[in-house]
Fold:
Amino acid sequence: MKKTLDQKLHSRKIKKPNFIYPILGYVWKLLFYKKYNVTPIFKTDIKKVKEPYILLSSHASRLDYMFTAIPLLPKRFNFVAGYNEFFRSHLAGVFKLLRVIPKKNFTADIYTIKEVSRVIKKGGNIILYPEGMSSISGANQPVAVGTGKFIKHFKLPVYYSVIKGGYLTSPKYDLTERYGKVEVVYDIMFTKEEIEKLSPTEIEDIINEKLYHDDYAWNKQVKNEFKIKGDISNNLHHLLYYCPKCKSEFTMKGENNKIYCTKCGNGANITNTYEMIPFDETCVIPTTQTEWFNLERKLAEIEIENKDFKLTEKVKLGMLPKDKLLKDQKTSIIVGEGTITLDHTGLTYNGTCNNEAFSFHLNTNEVPTYGMCTDLSRFYTFYKGEFMEFYPENETVEKWFLCTESLHRYHNGKWRNFKFEKK
Structure:
């Protein structure tokens, strides 16, 4: 019987990268490093470290594999990447050549642990983005639950990198790249002896604080200019959907280098340093886009305190193919349609799948947040190990994220918010 794509993927026994890794790395360096204006900053010269180690990195954008690994050439790494990305034709071949290890995000994955162990036993190095998904807002989210246990299990020294300017180069709300300045700062995070003394929770707390970075706050100080062939504010309303002046939701619009409310006219011009300049003195505009996003989070936290809270949206349902890779940069194939509902019991889908009635439910502990493959047009979760992607009828994705995360924490879920005070 012919194996499915999933079976083929999970039958791989991952080895350390071979000679192809540095060849591709140096080609990408020639093609892209000057284009993105990348500058590595070594607080610890990890290029000289000879023993195997784990490199943890902040996850700023879709381009982080280049930003993080190329400055460390000729050293080779096995990356850990989202399981679903291995089903996309433009990535599958490269991932196989580079011996990337798949991981189902925000859910336990024994296969990942086995393959990381296999590489480490052979003296390999691992690059991991512990947030599990590139930044939505321009700043970090807390690392995935279990990161501390993962680090303690392997007992290797841990180094880290913080990517500055990566989100502004390739933001989540728009697929059009911008060219300005990227800095990648490297340092040591834990020695083997320090890991031995720390609890998993303490390890996660330290990782969260060390990796934290806010691109908008950073660039407000350094004022790097970003060039774009198009509109710097295109689709920004997918992220900033709330009007701070008239307090309406989903009335914001990002276009023509502006973000504005279609209801009350509140808005700002956006410069090529991402600074927001209010139209006039009557406008109510947060200092940065991240602060605007954080305001939306606070409002979501207040909203879900109502015991009758409910969020509903019509969606198309996408799943991964069984035997053919996705083409044209698609992230799933549409297999049904229905309605998703979020309330204090969790997330429910009611609708169809492959022309049959289908429904499922995940409680608030089972869905701490969602994954997002490309931009703010869709999001995914896993149900019984199966990838489920939702394509909403309306531009509401960010509110689903914020309310889902708030409900998870309200009901004492394990994925908590940052404990430190963000600068």
Summary: The longest strand covers residues 333-343. The mean pLDDT is 97. The chain has three domains: 5-222, 236-303, 310-410.
